[in-house]
Structure formats: structure tokens, C-alpha cells
Amino acid sequence: MDNINYIKDSSNQDIRRHFANACIQWARIRGYSDSTGLLRGLVTLAKEPMSLDELVQETGYSKSTVSSNMNLLENLGLVKRIVIPGDKRHIYETITNPEIIMANMLDTIEKEIRLFSDALDRTENELVTRVEETGYLRERVAALKHLCEQGKNRIDILRKKPLNEAYESCE
Fold first, then answer.
1. Residues of the chain with pLDDT > 90: what percent?
2. Under CATH, what is the fold of the domain 3-94?
3. Structure pTM?
4. H-helix segments, the chain
């Protein structure tokens, strides 16, 4: 069953479900819950910023589920929390600035590259102490380290280019 069926407001449901389902698939690929994806989709397509209570009402999820998922989305740089002086409610809106979105995407890729690069360095250091035949593994590690370096270089290039140039180079 599609999680979009949990949305209580049926207006524009058919139109919104495609994007919400894509956000749910994004969440699954990233190892996040379906609720994270659905909430991302709802906030992204919302006409105006949504309060925590509105998100609870819209999805039927518990307040703690919505709160923890919105904190995650905020930490990922996908939504921002708006603070209104004198108002205790949390209001969220999606981040639509392409420069911020691009920076967040590059940060995520860079963290993944760093994770694998560090593991490859440790593997390479351990291979030095091994006496048994590890030639194929040394070659594989060297090739993967080269790929990591290429990835780091490309990220550096993309960070230096204005967004319109970076977009054009991808076409």
C-alpha cells in the first residue's frame, strides 16, 4: 500500500502522490523510514510552511514520529525550521535555493567518498604487513583509491563553478 494513502486531505492527492512516492523511494534508498520520505514530499509540495501539528494531522503519524523525522530532514539540509517570536509551534518549509541544495548534495557525496577513502587507507596499511599473496587486493585498493581521488577532484570543480555552469556541464 502506498504511504500516500495516509494523507487525510484528499484534495490534489492524485497529483501529490507521484512526488510523495518518489520521496518515499528516496528515503528507502538512503536507509530512512517511509515516514521521512512522505514528510519530505508533503513539505516540499505545500503551498506554505507547515506546522508540526499540521504534519501530524495530514499524515496521521504521532507527534514524536513527525518531530524526529523533521529534525532529520532539517539536519540533512532539506527543510528549515522557521521560528516565529512568541510562538512555540515549529513551522517547516522546504529549502528551494538551488545553491544550498547543490552544496548539500556535494557534502553528502563527499562524506561517502571520505568514508570509503579512509577504509581504503586502512586496508592499504594493513596489506603492507601481510606476507601472503595479496597482489590482486593491492591493485583493487589502488584502483578504488584512484576513483575516490577523481570523485574528490570533481566535487572540488563543481563547488568552484557557478550553479548554471555546473548544470550545463552535466548536460
1. 57
2. Arc Repressor Mutant, subunit A (1.10.10)
3. 0.68
4. 13-30, 34-45, 52-59, 63-75, 98-128, 135-160, 163-170
